[in-house]
Design goal:
Blueprint: H1 2-21, E1 29-35, H2 36-46, E2 50-56, H3 69-76, E3 80-83, H4 92-99, E4 105-107, E5 116-119, E6 138-141, H5 149-166, H6 171-197, E7 205-207, H7 214-220, E8 223-225, H8 238-251, E9 255-259, H9 265-274, E10 277-282, H10 297-312
Helix pairs in contact: 2-5, 3-4, 5-6, 6-10, 8-9
Bound molecules: zinc ion.
């Protein structure tokens, strides 16, 4: 019993020693980011002072992620955690608890005006018709706020302030890195608005599999129809798909877009039944690997806007 307590005490001392050592001297700030887009932002602001571990990496689906013991260990050793918030990382609370992480959590979307969705519950039965649609509907916030560059600027400011709080000695560096990055985001914002404005208004309508493009659509002027709702957790029902096929035919929606994180079969089916063309792959919830078309947050916008312009220009 006694020796067990001593061992526990020693282990605790070692853990605390490691944790405090990471703050001292030249050691880097150890950050954990919940997914690839926040990871890229933290790297831009943190530069050489920060070492980032990402839980959901490139091409990964953060809606349905299952953390491993390795993830818990990484978080246990971290100085700071960066998450999206808005209900995106439903698994995070459990991971925080199981890892014992007690450090600061920066919710990158703090200050964003959320898009509220009237989301239907999970219909898998065959009893529903359009009249019964809202009996288990619920209000949920659309978590994909990073898809507006105006929101991206808020993310960067929150990340900068979080890093300064945990590493005040780096303030000047974080402020300079953030200022440079915010300029690049502002420039990209101008480019995106100009590119979308060139598309014929009647062609600015697309289909995606899950509803991850709401902030983009609302910021830049696009209509998006998505069979799966704002999470990838629930599958579209046969009725949802039939309804969308009718809508595409009636409204002559020109293009269907695949996603890097989702199965393409549903959209292949919709495209073949309606004659809408497959407009390529859009990146919503995850970046591509470094050698892919969207390895950074800003590359993601360039790629997505290029794919939209190619498919929707007349
Ligand atoms: Zn999503």
């Amino acid at each position: 019993m006694t020796s067990g307590l001593i061992r526990f005490g020693l282990a605790l001392a070692v853990v605390l020693g490691v944790a405090s050592g990471s703050q001292a001297g030249d050691a880097k700030v150890k950050a954990v980011a919940s997914f690839s887009i926040v990871d890229d932002m933290v790297k831009n602001v943190g530069g050489d002072r920060v070492e980032v571990i990402t839980l959901v990496g490139p091409d990964g689906d953060a809606h349905v992620f299952s953390p491993t013991p390795t993830d818990a260990k990484a978080l246990a050793q971290a100085d700071i955690l960066f998450v999206n918030g808005l209900g995106f990382e439903g698994w995070m609370q459990r991971l925080e608890t199981s890892s014992g992480f007690k450090g600061p959590v920066v919710v990158a979307s703090t200050g964003v005006k959320p898009i509220e969705m009237h989301e239907e519950g999970h219909h898998h039965g065959d009893e529903d018709d359009d009249k019964g649609e809202d009996h288990d509907a619920e209000e949920v916030s659309d978590p994909h706020a990073w898809q507006s560059l105006a929101n991206g600027k808020l993310y960067v400011a929150n990340i900068r302030d979080g890093l300064i709080a945990v590493d005040p000695a780096g303030r000047a560096i974080y402020e300079a890195n953030a200022a440079k990055y915010l300029d690049a985001i502002a420039k990209e914002e101008t480019d995106v608005k100009a590119a979308i404005a060139k598309l014929p208004p009647e062609r600015r309508r697309i289909i995606t599999s899950h509803d991850a493009f709401g902030y983009f659509a609302s910021a830049y002027g696009l209509e998006v129809i998505a069979p799966e709702g704002v999470s990838t957790e629930s599958e579209a029902s046969a009725q949802d798909v039939a309804k969308i096929i009718r809508q595409i035919r009636a409204e002559k929606i020109p293009a269907v877009f695949l996603e890097n994180i989702s199965d393409r079969r549903l959209l292949d089916q919709i495209a073949s039944e309606t004659g809408a063309k497959i407009g390529g792959t859009l990146y919503f919830d995850a970046l591509s690997p470094p050698d892919g078309p969207a390895p950074t947050y800003l590359d993601m916008f360039r790629h997505n806007v290029g794919a939209l312009a190619a498919a929707l220009s007349s």
